[in-house]
Amino acid sequence: MTQGEQITVENGVLHVPDHPIIPFIEGDGIGPDIWRAASRVFNAAVEKAYGDKKKIAWKEVLTGQKAFDLTGEWLPQETLDAIKKYVIAIKGPLTTPVGGGIRSLNVALRQQLDLFTCLRPVRYFQGVPSPVKHPERVDMVIFRENTEDIYAGIEFESGTPEAQKVINFLQNDMGVRKIRFPETSGIGIKPVSKEGTDRLVRAAIRYAISEGRKSVTLVHKGNIMKFTEGAFKNWGYDLAEKEFPDQTFTWKQFDAIAAEKGKQAAVEAQKEAESEGRIIVKDAIADNFLQQILTRPSEYDVVATMNLDGDYISDALAAQVGGIGIAPGANINYETGIAIFEATHGTAPKYAGMDKVNPSSVILSGVLMFEHLKWYEPAKLITQAIEKTIESKVVTYDFARLMDGAKEVKCSEFADELISHL
Ligand SMILES: NC(=O)C1=CN([C@@H]2O[C@H](COP(=O)(O)OP(=O)(O)OC[C@H]3O[C@@H](n4cnc5c(N)ncnc54)[C@H](OP(=O)(O)O)[C@@H]3O)[C@@H](O)[C@H]2O)C=CC1
Ligand SMILES: O=C(O)CCC(=O)C(=O)O
Ligand SMILES: [Mg+2]
């Protein structure tokens, strides 16, 4: 029996006891290595900040290979029930096989708990090796829709009666003539809804307002996928104008002013909105966005996007500030309060059990978790310890191979070093 008390939510507000029970999923591959390291850092930081007054009561819940080995199920109902009950959880990465086998357990957790936002802040830590000249110009927060899109996993395998049935329906009932090789195509379905878009864009704009950010960029490939990604853009603008008329200025409004009064009037209206501290809601087509985050990262701030685009953007942006070894995240439902914190990276199977990889991503996901719980002191202590440790050039292999004069340490030793800097 875990000694501690439940976190509760009342009218959307979290109530966090001094000894909260927090479920954790260790994860597959490198999961056990990084979890061992990270949990030591979390406990040490809480103790340093609060002494005996506060302490986390960790409660292991099973998902992935460990769950299957012990229970015969990949994602036991008990795990879903525990996360719902205890509200806040943290997890290591989970393996998803390619081209067959089980569907993603990460996606299943996000869908079944309706964790509609995948929040991934991307910032630079001084001293981290980066492939770009000015990594410090990257300071973005990704809001990735987390429950729908082609990522929902609605697919029919080539050569099956199901795929043929969908293809027949498309060809015979819908008049579709564009399936190039109907005999051998697999089919994927891409649902993107107004409700799904609204709640995600609402969360992104609310965040931008509360954090004093400058802009929210809707990233999409809406020129090509007009009724899914294009609709995401349109619904996003509509929501901003309807729900945040006094706090935002959108590029749709810019275009309307330009059409009526000319471009100069629109430019001035945007300048005025900026000077009033309004959030500029703009959009970018995804391929262009991926080149502009390299060439002009300072122009982007909060990013709201769909599931697959958000997946690609997360790793691409992480690379600019040192890679997915230092990229944190969270899956959040802002309405129920349920949240699972997790790194951006996966199970990196070739390093599993080697005590080698960088635990910073899951540790920084813990920092996000502490901030979410309003336990700001341990969050700050850990962030400062990461800054000091990187500054002292004591780093794991991923940074050491790109840094002059670095001392390479194991995953567990990196955690020791962080603890010594708390
Ligand atoms: N949320 C989740 O649980 C996620 C799960 N996955 C799953 O993980 C599995 C492997 O996916 P894959 O595409 O290889 O992506 P991974 O993120 O697991 O690994 C890709 C590469 O990223 C680098 N890397 C990853 N984690 C770290 C770390 N902690 N420290 C330093 N470097 C790191 C390594 O680079 P290098 O080789 O250069 O050293 C590694 O080879 C798949 O089954 C996938 O579905 C993937 C993403 C998220
Ligand atoms: O679920 C998976 O295996 C991959 C998920 C992923 O890449 C992500 O969420 O960033
Ligand atoms: Mg990913």
From TrEMBL:
Annotated residues for binding of NADP(+): 95, 345-351, 358, 397, 401
EC number: 1.1.1.42
Catalytic activity: D-threo-isocitrate + NADP(+) = 2-oxoglutarate + CO2 + NADPH
Annotated GO biological process: glyoxylate cycle; tricarboxylic acid cycle
SUPFAM superfamilies: Isocitrate/Isopropylmalate dehydrogenase-like (SSF53659)
Cross-referenced Gene3D superfamilies: Isopropylmalate Dehydrogenase
Site (described: Critical for catalysis): 151, 221
Name the record gives this protein: Isocitrate dehydrogenase [NADP]
